[in-house]
């Protein structure tokens, strides 16, 4: 059994051997920065400019991008649209990702209303819960479905990615059903360690842990230590 964690393999588009988790995390930052350049009408960008916006050194950026291939020209820089396309392919974002959110509590409803998923290539197709008082309610453009029908909903919507916004007590059973329904990519907000079979990628978001890490770095900063690295997996 595989456990949740922050060291999942890179998406298949990142190459046969995969990329280090820290590199994959930085690629998402570069992709967001490139989107900003495109929105401003910038067609070419230097490694120094892209690195500055991304919060890394130009050496780190060039090393990361070199693992995907050679997309820049010395003295000229990168074609923004071309590099954005290559990064999207490497991260698997050119696929059709259809996301179901299991759990329609406060967090699940907030996620369902978030409009940024669509602009990043993720189509939220279902929101499920077990509470009769919640089932049938409209949340954004979705109507809350009955989690008892999870498998049928997944088939109908062709769900291939799931988000678990559930309490710890309900998370493992829901995760097992999601996996049995054929979904191999899961993001869990449940405050517990989940077990999944080999071949299933499980990412865990623990907000309390992130706050504890922030507290550690804040304390170090107040005592004269370094403020810490940007959020993300260690290299």
Automatic annotation (TrEMBL):
<dbReference type="InterPro" id="IPR036388">
    <property type="entry name" value="WH-like_DNA-bd_sf"/>
</dbReference>
<keyword id="KW-0804">Transcription</keyword>
<dbReference type="Pfam" id="PF06971">
    <property type="entry name" value="Put_DNA-bind_N"/>
</dbReference>
<keyword id="KW-0520">NAD</keyword>
<protein>
    <recommendedName>
        <fullName>Redox-sensing transcriptional repressor Rex</fullName>
    </recommendedName>
</protein>
<dbReference type="InterPro" id="IPR022876">
    <property type="entry name" value="Tscrpt_rep_Rex"/>
</dbReference>
<feature type="DNA-binding region" description="H-T-H motif">
    <location>
        <begin position="29"/>
        <end position="68"/>
    </location>
</feature>
<dbReference type="InterPro" id="IPR003781">
    <property type="entry name" value="CoA-bd"/>
</dbReference>
<keyword id="KW-0805">Transcription regulation</keyword>
<dbReference type="InterPro" id="IPR036390">
    <property type="entry name" value="WH_DNA-bd_sf"/>
</dbReference>
<comment type="subunit">
    <text>Homodimer.</text>
</comment>
<feature type="binding site">
    <location>
        <begin position="103"/>
        <end position="108"/>
    </location>
    <ligand>
        <name>NAD(+)</name>
    </ligand>
</feature>
<keyword id="KW-0678">Repressor</keyword>
<dbReference type="InterPro" id="IPR009718">
    <property type="entry name" value="Rex_DNA-bd_C_dom"/>
</dbReference>
<dbReference type="Pfam" id="PF02629">
    <property type="entry name" value="CoA_binding"/>
</dbReference>
<dbReference type="InterPro" id="IPR036291">
    <property type="entry name" value="NAD(P)-bd_dom_sf"/>
</dbReference>
<keyword id="KW-0963">Cytoplasm</keyword>
<keyword id="KW-0238">DNA-binding</keyword>
<comment type="similarity">
    <text>Belongs to the transcriptional regulatory Rex family.</text>
</comment>
<feature type="domain" description="CoA-binding">
    <location>
        <begin position="92"/>
        <end position="193"/>
    </location>
</feature>
<dbReference type="InterPro" id="IPR058236">
    <property type="entry name" value="Rex_actinobacterial-type"/>
</dbReference>
<comment type="function">
    <text>Modulates transcription in response to changes in cellular NADH/NAD(+) redox state.</text>
</comment>
């Amino acid at each position: 059994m595989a456990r949740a964690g922050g060291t999942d393999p890179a998406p298949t588009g990142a190459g046969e051997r995969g990329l280090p988790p820290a590199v994959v995390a930085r690629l998402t930052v570069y992709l967001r920065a490139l989107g900003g350049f495109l929105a401003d009408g910038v067609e070419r960008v230097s490694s120094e400019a892209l690195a500055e916006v991304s919060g890394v050194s130009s050496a780190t950026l060039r090393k990361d991008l070199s693992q995907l291939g050679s997309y820049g020209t010395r003295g000229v820089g990168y074609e923004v649209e071309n590099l954005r396309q290559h990064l999207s392919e490497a991260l698997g974002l050119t696929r059709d990702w259809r996301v179901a959110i299991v759990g329609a509590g406060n967090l699940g409803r907030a996620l369902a209303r978030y409009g940024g998923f669509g602009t990043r290539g993720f189509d939220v197709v279902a929101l499920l819960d077990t509470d009769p008082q919640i089932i049938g309610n409209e949340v954004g453009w979705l109507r809350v479905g009955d989690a008892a029908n999870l498998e049928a909903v997944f088939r109908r919507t062709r769900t291939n990615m799931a988000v678990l916004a559930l309490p710890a007590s309900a998370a493992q059973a829901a995760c097992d059903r999601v996996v049995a329904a054929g979904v191999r990519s899961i993001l869990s907000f449940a405050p517990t360690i989940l077990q999944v079979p080999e071949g299933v990628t499980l990412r865990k978001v623990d907000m309390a842990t992130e706050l504890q890490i922030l507290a550690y770095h804040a304390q170090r900063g107040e005592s004269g230590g370094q403020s810490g690295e940007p959020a993300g997996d260690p290299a």
